[in-house]
């Protein structure tokens, strides 16, 4: 599996979850967003035995990075190597139309793919996905507000500002759930200088 395949698969799955679930279960998509940031830097020092790397930060500052013992190919990383760090964050939210489906809850998934041992350039990908189910406890149509209860039992009132979602408020019922999926994908690739 190519390293960027995980990034594409997780991001696509998160974005499609809103649309595909709405088609199957008559759920109402509320929001979907994707942000990506990329940093290209270079290696200033490597301590493979202690799993530490020093990268060049903004304005030439040193950024010390402590890696886990899962970083097996650090011995192949050299001073002067280019490091490309990409972070993709996505959020998808949909209204679950089932009422009294259950108590609010959350699920967390993580995974990783590392470069193969025979790859001369260390790197890999990791993802973390958290799905939170929030229960609707109050709806105020005049103020365009919905109050949710989170898995810890805390309540929060949200102002609904998007007109297309405001139009759907009249169809909401206390006891329905909003499912929000947060996904972060971190991709690190390295390259020896030419």
Describe this structure in words.
By secondary structure, the chain is mostly beta strands. The chain has one domain (3-37, 84-191). The chain has helices at residues 3-25, 163-166, and strands at 28-47, 52-56, 62-66, 82-96, 105-114, 123-140, 145-149, 155-159, 177-191. Strands 1, 2, 3, 4, 5, 6, 7, 8 and 9 form a nine-stranded antiparallel sheet that branches. It is elongated and about 60 Å long. Residues 1-25 have low confidence and may be disordered.
Structural key phrases:
194 residues, mainly beta, 9-stranded antiparallel beta sheet, 51% strand, elongated, DUF5666 domain-containing protein, signal
Describe the SSE topology.
Layout: H1 3-25, E1 28-47, E2 52-56, E3 62-66, E4 82-96, E5 105-114, E6 123-140, E7 145-149, E8 155-159, H2 163-166, E9 177-191
Antiparallel strand pairs: 1-2, 1-4, 2-3, 4-9, 5-6, 6-7, 6-9, 7-8
**Radius of gyration from the alpha-carbon trace, in angstroms:** 22 Å
Structural class: mainly beta
Q: Segments where pLDDT lies below 50 for 5+ residues?
A: 1-25
- Average per-residue pLDDT, rounded, comes to 79
Report the sheet with the most strands, covering strand number, pairing sense and barrel closure. Answer: 9 strands, antiparallel
Number of helices: 2
* Series of secondary-structure elements, N-terminal to C-terminal: HEEEEEEEEHE
- Taken as a percent bin, the fraction of beta residues is over 45%
- What form results from the Cα inertia axes? elongated
Helix content: 10-25%
**Between the first and last Cα atoms, what is the distance in angstroms?**
26 Å
Task: Give the beta-strand count.
Answer: 9
Tally the structural domains. 1
What oligomeric state do these chains adopt? single chain
Protein name: DUF5666 domain-containing protein
Organism: Pseudomonas lini
Keywords: Signal
């Amino acid at each position: 599996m190519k390293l960027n395949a995980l990034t594409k698969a997780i991001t696509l799955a998160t974005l499609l979850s809103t649309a595909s679930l709405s088609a199957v279960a008559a759920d109402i998509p509320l929001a979907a967003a994707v942000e990506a940031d990329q940093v290209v830097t270079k290696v200033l020092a490597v301590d493979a035995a202690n799993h530490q790397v020093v990268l060049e930060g903004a304005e030439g500052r040193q950024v010390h990075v402590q890696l886990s013992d899962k970083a097996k190919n650090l011995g192949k990383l050299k001073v002067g190597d280019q490091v490309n760090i990409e972070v993709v964050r996505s959020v998808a939210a949909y209204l679950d139309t089932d009422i009294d489906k259950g108590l609010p809850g959350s699920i967390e998934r993580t995974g990783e793919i590392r470069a193969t041992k025979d790859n001369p350039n260390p790197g890999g990908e990791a993802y973390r996905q958290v799905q939170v189910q929030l229960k609707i406890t109050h709806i105020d149509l005049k103020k365009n507000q919905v109050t949710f209860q989170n898995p810890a039992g805390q309540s929060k009132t949200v102002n609904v500002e998007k007109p297309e979602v405001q139009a759907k408020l009249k169809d909401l019922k206390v006891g329905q759930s909003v499912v929000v999926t947060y996904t972060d994908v971190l991709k690190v690739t390295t390259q020896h200088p030419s």
